[in-house]
Amino acid sequence: MRLEHGHRASLALTLNFVAFAFALSAVTTNYWCEGTRKVAKPFCTGPPVKVKQWFCIRFNSSNINDTRLVQYIFETGEEKFLLRKFHTGIFFSCEQAVDMNGFDCRDFSEIAPEHERGVLWLCIVAESLYLTLLFTGGALMTLEQCPCFSIMNKLKLSAFAALCTALSGLCGMVAHMMFTTIFQLAVAMGPEDWRPKTWDYSWSYVLAWGSFGTCMGSAVTALNRYTKTIIEFKYKRRNIEKSLMIKQKMMELDFPEQVWDMYLTAVPTDAEAPLELPVNGHKPSTGTTYVVEMDNVPEQQGEAYC
């Protein structure tokens, strides 16, 4: 599908904005991974209630300090354990509270293995570079749409925008892979009070990789537009140089100016068609193939084609 220059620029800019929105949403949320933790139910506190509290264990008697009473619980086996939900991001890891209402969050750097915390900080730096370069590329693409710049300046802006967007995609890919590695190490070597029973990647993780995909799509579109424009410029320059060489050849052979003017009017509009010359000063009909024989021209010194 062939797109015009303006459409390509708009497509690259749209993909850039989508990638930036996805990346910003992924980094600022804590749903990269989610799962459950198996923990023992705590003992219930406070006065007894009529409704059974399923998230804690209550003794048969509320008078716990009375040593003459036999204290026992009704929960057995798996009933003594509770599955708490948790979700984790780059900055924080949140787990359901003891009463199962709300979430308690703590810094993910406290959960990551101590010898891998440097990699976590590199991941944060890479994500910051990803957002910064992606925003810079979008800003350059927006400036490129401004009509106050010349064509060459727009080409330079397009090249820098494609470069910034491609570099941001590489930084994002490295950052996402580093977080994946750190989280898996935390699952295997993290603190006992955090290790999950089950876990999987969540919607923030999908947004992060979706942002990477749209970012690279924006970079490829911008680079393709820049490359196509450069090729068109080179092709037009080659045609101009070819026309000038033909004119110089005519001047060397003492052709009158009328022949050059008729040649210009006879040049087809299709850029792919071969360049043609009039024969004997007359423009042939459209579609007629003709050749100018220049070998005999020097022999006719006093004559010229009219």
Features:
306 residues, alpha+beta, Butyryl-CoA Dehydrogenase, subunit A, domain 3, 5 strands, rod-shaped, PMP-22/EMP/MP20-like, membrane, transmembrane, transmembrane helix, Germ cell-specific gene 1-like protein
Protein architecture, described:
With 306 residues, the chain is α+β, with helices and mostly antiparallel strands. It has a domain at 1-27 and 113-237: Butyryl-CoA Dehydrogenase, subunit A, domain 3. It is 50% helix and 10% strand. It has 6 helices and 5 strands, in the order αββββαααβαα. It has helices spanning 5-27, 108-111, 117-144, 151-189, 203-252, 257-266; strands spanning 33-40, 81-88, 92-96, 103-107, 198-201. Strands 4-3-2-1-5 form a 5-stranded antiparallel β-sheet. α3 (117-144) packs antiparallel against α4. The two termini are 47 Å apart. The model is unreliable at 268-306 (pLDDT under 50).
Class by alpha and beta content: alpha+beta
Strand order of the largest sheet: 4-3-2-1-5
Oligomerization: single chain
Mean pLDDT: 75
Q: What integer value in Å does the Rg equal?
A: 37 Å
Strand segment tally: 5
Largest sheet: 5 strands, antiparallel
**Cα distance spanning the termini:** 47 Å
Number of helical regions: 6
Approximate shape: rod-shaped
Would you identify the regions where 5 or more consecutive residues have pLDDT less than 50?
268-306
Instruction: List SSEs in N-to-C order.
Output: HEEEEHHHEHH
